[in-house]
Specification:
CATH class of the largest domain in chain A: Alpha Beta
Strand content of chain A: 5-15%
Shape of chain A: elongated
Radius of gyration of chain A: 22 Å
Low-confidence stretches of chain A: none
Mean pLDDT of chain A: 95
Order of helices and strands of chain A: EHEHEHEHEEHEHHHHHH
Number of domains of chain A: 2
Oligomer: homodimer
Largest sheet of chain A: 7 strands, mixed
Distance between the termini of chain A: 50 Å
Strand order of the largest sheet of chain A: 2-1-3-4-5-6-7
Number of strands of chain A: 7
CATH superfamily of the largest domain in chain A: NAD(P)-binding Rossmann-like Domain
């Protein structure tokens, strides 16, 4: 197989640029379409062997509908979104090879040494195998799972973690205390926790809104979190140290 | 002033041992009383120039009542608890020098390079100045504040942080997912966040129960946290991306 031409739709976004740079470094011919490019999504679809969607989750379906008639049956359609069930279902409507991908790293990191989750489909074939090998050759750790498994895992590894950080930042803001002084008298681990939440909220709100709101498994994980909060708050309100220790030890035991 | 004799009540506990080791290393004579020592708290109080209470917060008042008649007026009474208003109020009932202390580090760390918060009182004098200099000479960072300020700052730097970690661990447990697999497909920052919560719940539940339940400012901070959780969960439930971004940006703007 000769080296395929890769077209990235949304190639001027942060994640698109990162992958474009990666493919170029590997000597691969790249086409890019975005809101401000001369090349249209349709033209890109006609000319690419592998079409990668690097667009917000809620734009994926619309773009697939737009390019579907122009994809060659021998080409491959892949995506980079943080949700896999719905985008893969949408991609499978196209008459071509289909592979779901999810890079597990912020858009500013180098690709080598990072993890990419792949969700192969019944329509994954030559191009899917080729890109997997390319990633592996470049030191990327590949994890394979079904779209359903992916979305379930991400409701924890992403949604629950992000939700917890964002609400922490919100309640920190409500205290109206000088952050510098709080940080000065905080332990190292508290400083890390505070910094971690404050780093997250410097990022793109739209990305996090999409990740949480589009994941079909997020809500049940977040509702469990609310339940945990309500339960422990009630214990603190009742000054019930025995119940606090029971709550604490239940988790200590579970994870030990 | 000759080097004072330091008596540590609860000196066989983790924090007590850490400070005993520190004082010994500095060539200071140490007395220790604990549940299993021959030396009683009363005897220790009679023989010490500086008496340090290294006992659970909810035992402090009881022990002060026990030793109060035996403390020499020229001696000093100090504590190591994570709350300052109530213990200092209780210590001030004794007719001696009084200093509140709070070491901002886990009980397994070396003292040098760490932070100790001091809450001087109107009855802080010679021994208080001496111990402050000893800490500084050993590379300890000293921060001074009033007991009220201390408890307000700790409701954030400790209580809010710990609460958030403990409820996160609880909601993680509820998911009944294989932690190893979740960790494998999590980003570095998510792994750190999960590890941080799982590290906290390996610690002593009684210590955390005391810190949260005894701090007079904790409940209002935790209720604000509950409000933040309820608000964002409702937004996710309504799939309202605009409201999500508004919530996110409000905090982004506040902390930028």
């Amino acid at each position: 197989m000769s080296t395929p031409v890769i077209g990235i739709i949304g190639g001027n976004g942060k994640m698109g640029k990162l992958f474009a740079h990666f493919f170029k470094k590997n000597g691969i011919k790249i086409l890019i379409s975005d809101r401000d490019t001369k090349l249209t999504n349709t033209e890109l679809a006609q000319r690419s062997d592998i079409i990668i969607l690097s667009v917000p989750i809620d734009k994926t379906e619309q773009i697939i509908t737009e390019i579907k008639p122009h994809i060659r049956p021998t080409s491959a359609l892949m995506d980079l979104t943080s949700i896999k069930s719905a985008p893969i279902k949408a991609m499978l409507k196209a008459k071509c090879e289909v592979l779901g991908m999810h890079p597990m790293f912020g858009n500013s990191n180098p690709i080598s040494g990072q993890t990419i989750i792949l969700c192969p489909t019944k329509k994954s074939s030559t191009h899917s195998k080729w890109i997997e090998k390319l990633f592996e050759k470049n030191g990327v750790k590949i994890i394979k799972m079904t779209p359903k498994q992916h979305d379930k895992f991400m409701s924890i590894a992403q949604n629950l973690v992000h939700f917890s950080e964002i609400v922490f930042a919100d309640s920190l803001r409500q205290q109206k205390m000088p952050l510098k002084q709080v940080m000065e008298c905080a332990s190292n681990s508290s400083q890390q926790k505070i910094n971690s939440a404050l780093t997250l909220i410097t990022k793109d709100p739209n990305l996090y809104a999409n990740m949480i709101i589009e994941n079909p498994n997020a809500l049940s994980a977040l509702k469990a979190h609310q339940k945990s909060v309500n339960e422990l708050l009630k214990i603190v309100e009742n000054k019930d140290k025995k119940a606090f220790e029971k709550y604490f030890n239940k988790n200590k035991k579970h994870f030990s």
